[in-house]
Amino acid sequence: MRKRVSLKDIAAELKVSTAVVSYVLNNKHEGRVSEEKAQQIRDVAKRLNYFPDQIAKSLRSDKTMTIGLIIADIANLFYSNIVRYIENSCNKHQYHVIVSSTDENPEKFKELVQVMLNRKVDGMIVAPPKGVEETLMYLRDGQIPFVVIDRFFPEVDAICTVGIDNFQASYDVVRHVAENGYRKPAMVTLNTELYHMQQRAAGFKAGASELLKIAQPQVLHIDEQQLSATIGSAICQLLDNGTDLIYFSTNRIAMEGLAVLVNHQIEVPQQIGIVCFDEADAYKIFYRSITFVQQPLHKIGSMSVDMLIASINGTGSTKNVTLDTQIFAYDTSARRIPKPNKPDDSP
Q1: pTM of the full predicted structure?
Q2: CA distance readout (Å), 217 to 40, 146, 179, 211, 332
Q3: Domain extent for 147
Q4: pLDDT for 26-36, tens place per residue?
Q5: 56, 180, 233, 253 — which has fewest CB within 10 A?
Q6: What is the CATH number of the domain that holds 114?
Q7: How many distinct structural domains can be found in the chain?
Q8: What are the DSSP calls for 59-108, one per residue?
């Protein structure tokens, strides 16, 4: 078995003390070691394939320098992007991230929490499914550092959360389309009990009622497992009802819905306007530039990491951070020009 490279091996090659090597590789060399010597140490460490002994390090510091990240679905564009921002922020703090997905399954979430605890992570960032309130209270009461992102659990108090104002985001969408001349928008969303998605729908209904005076705002709830099979009929139903704009509440719904519009050769925005929640690179292949609601993913990632590490270090406090979204308006919600009245043919 190949011998593990140690600090002594690096120090011996450069004829310096192990303390100097330790300062450099732990980024504590400023004012102690010249940058030229520090670079030599890093170069030798890389050439010798040096890896720090995390077990020994954790025994000395009582920390494993790992964070558990439990999300809903790594295949979802929102979560794959948020993982990247969280990993980047953790790297700045010299933390490593262990990522797992729940697939919106509460039992799987509970199992993953136990796995993370068994791995002795220093804390967790989680996007929990519905039905795990007891697990969140268990973590809170056990004083285990964790931060909830993207989701809100009003039933569980005194926990740290980072997310957006979903109600206001949807309300702002209605304001935007109303200002552009749309009078009968509809929303297509998921059939779910998740609080943040319910707030997203509630904001749309409130905006349609207050700004457009629609007595019964139309919101279609689709089962996520049946999304591909039912989205086509849902869109056709909206078109038959005179809907002039569709607001897709997630990027996954949007991708399915845009495919239907292309397949049915429905002109956007002439026949129907479109607004999507969240952005996606795949939107670029659509024949019109798409209006979307942008979540501040970088802020969600960096703030959740900062809050978690403050909690791990005992310097944090319970915070509920709500961030603003921004609408990027493009072709698919362009100003609607009213059709001219037909001329009176009477003599």
Answers
A1: 0.79
A2: 66, 38, 17, 11, 21
A3: 63-164+297-324
A4: 777 777 888 99
A5: 56
A6: 3.40.50.2300
A7: 3
A8: HHHT---EEEEEES-TTSHHHHHHHHHHHHHHHHTT-EEEEEE-TT-HHH
